[in-house]
Amino acid sequence: MDDVRLPAFAEGAGTITDLIHAPGRTSPLAVVDFGGDVDYQLAAEGMSVGQTIDVGSSEISIGNIMRLSEIPEGTAVHNIEKSPGDGGKFVKVAGVSAQVISRGNIVVLQMPSGELKDFNPDCRAAIGVVAGGGRTDKPLAKAGKKYHALRSSSKDNFHVSGVAMNPVDHPHGGGSHPHVGGPSTVSRNAWPGQKVGRLSPQKKKKKR
Q1: Do residues 27 and 136 make contact, with C-beta atoms less than 8 angstroms apart?
Q2: What string of DSSP letters covers the chain?
Q3: What is the CATH number of the domain that holds 32?
Q4: Is residue 100 part of a domain?
Q5: Domain membership flag for residue 183
Q6: CB atoms within 10 A of CB 94
Q7: Are the C-beta atoms of 126 and 62 separated by less than 8 Å?
Q8: Would you state the torsion angle of the CA atoms of residues 169, 174, 179, 181, taken in this order, to the nearest 10 degrees?
Q9: Does residue 138 sit within a domain?
Q10: Count of structural domains, the chain
Q11: How many angstroms separate the CA atoms of 33 and 45, rounded?
Q12: Can you tell me the distance from the alpha carbon of 29 to that of 183, in angstroms, rounded to the nearest whole number?
């Protein structure tokens, strides 16, 4: 699925027909019918099927899409445009929101990180907090789930020690003991596959 963008038109209304899970996203999506044109928007906390979403409305209601200049201070917003008409670039992860701090020639928002950021008053945003909060509170429970979670994010926090392997898999493997079983130092000129352990260690203490 392509990036979820705010509707391109300035004014209009649509009805939420479904709330769906989106693979690859942390938050659910709302399927919105804008008079025959089906669009996908980030679901906000409190949204429900049958709810009306207004674009360009002046009513502060969950899911409505408005210009930042029209949103009162203290309101939680998400899917914020970086420049007018780009469809939304900021605050799109489950459970987060930004807060309107002040309005004027520029609109100041406090981002989820705590940073205060300036925006063009004509930029738009959706009202509310992105749904799916609490996702990270659920315990992984099993090492396998954590393994796959880290693997999907290109993080390799799981490392099997060489002494736990078989001798065909690692130079330190084999033997019924949890130690290397021989010198762990290796020459810097060792061939690939044998270059494991303490690589060309040097004396730390100078001779007198």
Answers
A1: no
A2: -PPP---SSSSEEEEEEEEE--TT-SS-EEEEEETTEEEEEE-BTT--TT-EEEES-SS--TT-EEEGGGSPTT-EEESB-SSTTS---B--STT--EEEEE-SSSEEEE-TTS-EEEE-TT-EEEESPBS-TTGGGS---SHHHHHHHHHHTT-------GGGS-TTT-TT--SSSSS-SS--EE-TTPPTTT--SEES---SSPP-
A3: 2.30.30.30
A4: yes
A5: no
A6: 19
A7: no
A8: -110
A9: no
A10: 1
A11: 19
A12: 57
Token pair for 148: 């796959």
Q: What local confidence, expressed as pLDDT, does residue 49 receive?
A: 96
* Residue range(s) defining the domain that contains residue 82: 12-127
Nearest Cα neighbor of 18 from 5, 36, 32 is: 32
Q: Do β-strands 98-102 and 37-42 pair in parallel, antiparallel, or remain unpaired?
A: unpaired
From the list 191, 200, 189, 188, the residue with the least C-alpha distance to 171 is: 191
Q: Which is nearest to 82 in space by CA: 93, 72, 90, 73? A: 90
Residue 59 identity (one-letter amino acid): E
Instruction: For Cα atoms 125, 34, 36, give the angle at the middle one, nearest 5 degrees.
Output: 155
Q: How would you write the pLDDT of the chain (208 residues) with one tens digit per residue? A: 568 999 998 899 999 999 999 988 999 999 999 988 999 999 999 999 999 999 997 789 999 999 999 999 999 999 999 999 999 999 999 999 999 999 999 999 999 999 999 999 999 999 999 999 988 888 999 988 888 888 877 777 788 899 999 999 999 999 999 999 999 999 999 999 899 999 998 877 777 6
Q: How far apart are CA 100 and CA 76, in angstroms?
A: 7
